[in-house]
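User: Structure please.
Assistant: Input sequence and predicted structure:
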Amino acid sequence: MTRPLPSLAALFGAALLASCGANAVQDITGPLPSARVRFFNFGVNAPAVNFYAGGAKMTAVQSTTGTESTNGVSYGGTGANNSGLYSGIAPGQYDLTGRIAAATDKDLVIAKVSATIADGKYYSFYMSGFYDPVAKTVEAFVVEDPIPAAFDYTQAYVRFVNALSNANAMTLYAKNTATGTEVPIGAAVAYKAAGAFTAVPAAVYDLSTRFAGSAANAIARTGVSFVAGRVYTITARGDITVTSTTATNRPFLDNTANR
């Protein structure tokens, strides 16, 4: 079964294997990775991928055959087996990549970002924009996830990331379905950028994004619950020109918890 190599469980296992001879004493006292990173495939029409940091595979799909699965993280998905959770990683400079998971063009790099991963910090890697089937490339970017240090556990914290390439900067709004109160979640956010985490009361919200100077919703999503003491990222993805409410590549607001 193929598993994410840099997960905490895998790192413990690697430490055990490295220390075990026929009669070796197991040493599990090595330090845990001190940084975190997670991955999203939000590249419209992009193939399923596995994500890597340098040569280390960070995501994987379970295989029952004893060989690596040719499935990967498909469009709209987060790091397989991680459910949007972070993987541990040592601080340093990395080429973060998305590589084709299918048998055809297996392990071909279609997205790459060189990033410095700092000690004690959290990051998100996004494949974004539109996949070019001729060049076999898609855009990507990395943002830091600065979870607030001063934390009010009676509130939820929300921020907006814009991974939608063919739209202008947008502001995210959250409307409390019980009180009708609507508030902006930070300021307008351009493509490949992230807004600040904003405290909101725990409640169920209808979410929407709007362009500057417009009262019309560009993207909307209803009935999103924000729980007190949790941190969330709302990410815009898809194709802003699509008007279908069911198309895979329609404009969409993804909701993934940071903690």
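The chain has two domains: 1-145, 147-259.
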